[in-house]
């Protein structure tokens, strides 16, 4: 068997998000974000999409009046805000070359509209990036990772109002200038394709405030504003930090046809094209014709300001990053088929794949497939910035966590990356999701654990928060040391 050949400069590391790990939700001048309204949902059926992700105006009003951090799990996170040096030491021990983090907009501009940034917020991330550099870890920074200021959701209709573009660009300029000597890899919007799956989390849109028949148009308009903001952020990054790189970020929801019935093949083709649309705009700098045809057919009117199309065309991204957790199946008989879900998406169950406790299908070959397909489409470097297995880890009496199931998951997926590289795909790096345990996005659980590092806290936020290395910690350390040769 041929040894894996990863590039010498391959960026091995891990991925986090401020709202899921930092905690300190109201410290040092931080404002309230949409994430601070997310509640712990211990008994939600994994298939119940609405229960996991729906949020109403009443829910927001209750959240604004509450100081509870047990119900609102992202408010406590895993205390990365205070423990980041300890965590960075552990990441450095594993040999991380890169760490994906996000900057919480509300730490810099608490409501999003302030004239001057919050200095304590700027200092926090400056210290974080300096400490990363001391440990030879490159920051990969997401600018907008489900952390929109709640004030903008309540007073600007989230991303629906055009004024939010300027407010976001102002935020970007501030952080580019402050961290120009510390950060060279950036991402604009996390999983920008999730606007329809969970509009409050992604674009700050509270759906009960608008007529149902107008929602699709409102969401597309908000998305357009994010596309323009992404291009403008890319423009100013190049002006302020020459040589820095900007990436887009997509949820790769790879879809197979159920069988070789041409109708199923066509359905899968269209489902994949819908998924790619969001990256297409940021890579090619224009909307695909089929989307505009859909708008015409449905009577959807998305307003473009003068110069928008030129902005999209001029300032496209340097690389394409994506999350990959599972694949799906398209079927013309979907209504009668068993369903699975994963990462807030649903599809027909694939009988050839295993599923996790949370009903996510495990498909390492799908990562190989996706890498080839995306590289053939975009011809830009690819970066896998989320991939991982959520599971209930057991702390043994001797203090160890024997997570061989996680090791096997990563072994298969890293091999899939190696296979894609062998097939000519240019892959920049790999940052598994939740390199330490953190609060899950939809149900605000800690018990759904992703990390190589165990955090001693329960779903309600009680515990010592001590960090404990899992068996997978040592395994991944060896993978990095051998540059992917030893799996």
CATH superfamily of the domain at 51-68 and 89-387 and 415-431: Glycosidases
Give a short account of the largest sheet. 8 strands, parallel, barrel
Number of strands: 16
> In angstroms, what is the radius of gyration?
21 Å
Q: In angstroms, what separates the terminal alpha carbons?
A: 13 Å
GO cellular component, one term: cytosol
Family: Belongs to the glycosyl hydrolase 1 family.
Keywords: Glycosidase, Hydrolase
Active site: 386 (nucleophile)
Describe the structure.
Helix 15 links the parallel strand 13 (382-386) and strand 14 (427-430). The relative contact order is 0.15. Helix 4 runs parallel beside helix 6 (119-134) and helix 10 (215-240) crosses helix 13. The protein is built from 16 helices and 16 strands. The protein has a domain at 51-68 and 89-387 and 415-431: Alpha-Beta Barrel (TIM Barrel), CATH 3.20.20.80. With 487 residues, it is an alpha/beta fold. The protein starts with 10 loop residues before the first strand and ends in a 6-residue tail after the last helix. The strands form five sheets. An eight-stranded parallel barrel has the order 1-2-3-4-5-7-13-14, surrounded by five helices. It has a two-stranded parallel sheet with strand order 6-8.
